[in-house]
Design a protein that fits this description.
The complex is a heterodimer of chains A (about 250) and B (about 325).
Chain A (H helix, E strand, L loop, with lengths): L1 E10 L2 E11 L4 E5 L6 H8 L7 E6 L2 E2 L5 H6 L2 E3 L12 H9 L7 H6 L2 H21 L14 H14 L4 E5 L7 H16 L3 E5 L3 H7 L2 E6 L2 E6 L1 H5 L2 H6 L8
Parallel strand pairs in A: 3-8, 3-9, 6-7, 7-8
Antiparallel strand pairs in A: 1-2, 1-4, 4-5, 9-10
Helix pairs in contact in A: 3-5, 3-6, 5-6
Chain B lengths: L5 H16 L7 H26 L7 H17 L4 H23 L4 H21 L1 H4 L5 E2 L7 E3 L3 E3 L4 H23 L2 H11 L1 H6 L4 H27 L1 E2 L6 H14 L4 H17 L7 H15 L3 H28 L1
Antiparallel strand pairs in B: 1-4, 2-3
The chains are: A alpha/beta (about 250), B mainly alpha (about 325).
């Protein structure tokens, strides 16, 4: 469903990502792992249009989406979250979610000003979708809360919820459990599994090996901007290059 | 979803009735003029609120677009065009001029956007003072006739040469502006403005074209500012470069900040209260601006959301206290 072809990104001549190719299959959970500075986030940013690749191509469902702006990429069915929990922290939970549905509607200037029948239909549609997502996230009773009143974990869940609002076919998560304790990490892991079970393909960047080994169907390993391994968690666990480069000669699993 | 509590609605209704009855109680022509001016400035401040308060883009070209409206109406009515055509024409002109300005300036962010738009504001002010054939230079344009009579069913012919009629005209435009902003701000579309203000990268990532969103907000603000400027031209009966000056921009900005940024009522309160406050500080003479400046600094530090923001915080504190008392009571009885 998704294909990255020889992606390369140079920053002032230095390669942050070099000739990385991989595929994401419909309905799977693919993890991208690697030590700090391996180029995971740069790769992510190229996939979602935040960075333009220096060379290489990105395909979604066979369409070339290389170099499209992030807001256009979303309409191709790919949504993302950010590494540092990124929310609209001046707005309420429900408002945060509604914004995520806007691109699917015709809620523009004139429809809104004139309250056309279309406006009513779309506004209701967005509201119902937000209610659905709130329930999915388990945040229904907090819909009117402002963001600072939410716990760290709730904020992470909401960030995923905002991305889910637009009904993406593929969800890209950048360290969704960063800074969380084990118990919270487990809950987020279950949430990600439920998202996949609903039919959304997931691509995830993570540091927590134990969590990834249990969650991912396949893993891509980066080191110094290059792909050094790809395979199932079992294959990765026993891959010599990965053990040397990333795990420091020891597997914590 | 976005409804306000009933006591606030009743309060707004009371304010509206008072506003409608006001001409019966004002006998002083000077005071009346001040009130009409405040309404026009309130309209312009509301518009500024859209781009600065809700969209978070500090456009300092606002006075220039007010001026384009004022000069547009002045020049067109002098050329024999009816005011009722000249006003929308001037507002559309502001939008057309705003298009290249927005397309260029909105590529910059934060302070840079403020500087670029301020530059445009200053340029327009200089143009107004120097393009003598068109604008009359420093002397400006005088003798702008009041709007022609219009026939309204049931009410009959309205003559706009009286102050009361001009008052109602300005009030109608203020209500229209508030109605439009209310619809925009309290909607999913309005949320996208706030999304751009709050977190542009995330807004982009959830499918919002942030550039277009900013441009729409900028142009809507320019359109409304020009309407206010056009009304200003016929109420005063003359325009001069100060009606397009950056001084005006900063006046609007002060009304906006002190009244309460990103609140609909704040802009109106600011536009009415600040001129009155300035008048009442008149006795300080040379120290007037000094004291006012100190006041401004205090408000920005302690009430960054202005008067309305302060009220809301007070309301929140009271509500929290009540809730806590209630839950304590439950604990005691339980």
């Amino acid at each position: 469903m998704f294909l990255a072809k020889s992606l390369t990104k140079l920053f002032d001549g230095l390669a942050a990502v070099q000739d990385v190719s991989f595929e994401i299959k419909q309905g799977e959970i693919l993890a991208i792992i690697g030590p700090n500075g391996a180029g995971k986030s740069t790769l992510f940013n190229m996939m979602t249009g935040t960075f333009k690749p220096t060379s290489g191509l990105v395909f979604m469902d066979g369409h070339n989406i290389t170099g499209l702006k992030p807001y256009r990429i979303v309409t191709k069915g790919m949504a993302r979250t950010f590494q540092t929990t990124s929310l609209f922290d001046q707005l309420r939970v429900i408002d945060n979610l509604m914004i995520g549905y806007k691109w699917r509607t015709g809620l523009g200037f004139w429809n809104t000003l004139l309250h056309t029948p279309k406006w009513k239909a779309y506004q209701t549609e967005a509201f119902l979708r937000a209610m659905e997502i709130l329930e999915f996230l388990g945040l229904t009773d907090k819909s009117e809360f402002f963001i600072p009143a939410l716990s760290q974990e709730e904020q992470k869940r909401l960030a995923i919820g905002i991305a889910m609002m637009g009904k993406p076919r593929m969800l890209l998560l950048d360290e969704p459990t960063g800074g969380l304790i084990q118990e919270e990490t487990d809950r987020i892991t279950r949430l990600i599994q439920r998202i996949r079970d609903q039919g959304t393909t997931v691509c995830i960047i993570e540091h927590k090996m134990q969590m990834i080994m249990g969650l991912a169907d396949r893993i891509v390993v980066l080191n110094y901007g290059k792909k050094i391994a790809e395979g199932s968690p079992e294959e990765i666990k026993s891959n010599q290059a990965v053990i040397e480069a990333y795990l420091g000669g020891e597997v914590h699993a | 979803m976005f409804t306000k509590p009933i006591h606030i609605k009743l309060f707004f209704l009371a304010v509206l009735i008072a506003a409608l009855l006001l001409p019966l109680f004002i006998s002083d022509a000077y005071m009346f003029q001040v009130v009409i001016m405040s309404i026009l400035f309130a309209i312009a401040t509301c518009a500024m609120n859209l781009i600065i308060g809700f969209t978070g883009q500090a456009s300092l070209a606002h006075g220039a677009f007010f001026g384009i409206g004022a000069y547009g109406v002045a020049i067109l009515t002098k050329a024999g065009v009816s005011f009722w055509l000249a006003l929308p024409a001037a507002a559309v002109m502001a939008v057309l001029i705003g298009l290249p300005v927005g397309l260029i300036s909105l590529r910059t962010r934060g302070h840079y956007f403020a500087i670029v738009t301020l530059c445009f504001g200053v340029i327009m002010w200089i143009v107004a003072g120097n393009w003598i054939e068109l604008t009359g230079g420093e002397n400006g344009i005088f003798g702008i006739a009041p709007p022609g009579d219009i026939l309204v069913p049931l009410i009959g012919r309205i003559d706009f040469s009286s102050q009361a009629a001009q008052y109602y005209l300005a009030l109608a435009f203020l209500l229209l502006t508030l109605w439009a902003l209310y619809r925009i701000v309290y909607s999913v579309f309005g949320l996208t403005f706030m999304a751009v203000r709050n977190n542009e990268a995330l807004a982009d990532a959830v499918g919002i074209n942030t550039f277009t969103t900013k441009l729409i907000s900028f142009e809507a603000a320019n359109f409304i500012a020009a309407l206010a400027g056009g009304l200003y031209a016929i109420v005063i009966g003359a325009v001069s470069p100060s009606a397009a000056g950056y001084g005006l921009t900063f006046n609007f900005l002060i009304y906006l900040i002190l009244g309460g940024i990103a609140t609909l009522s704040g802009s109106v309160i600011g536009a009415f209260a600040i001129p009155i406050l300035m008048e009442s500080l008149q006795f300080l003479q040379d120290y007037q601006l000094l004291i006012f400046g100190a006041l401004l600094v205090v408000v920005i530090i302690y009430f960054p959301m202005g008067f309305v923001g302060g009220l809301r915080r007070l309301n929140q504190i009271i509500a929290d206290r009540r809730r806590r008392k209630k839950s304590e009571a439950v604990h005691v009885s339980g």
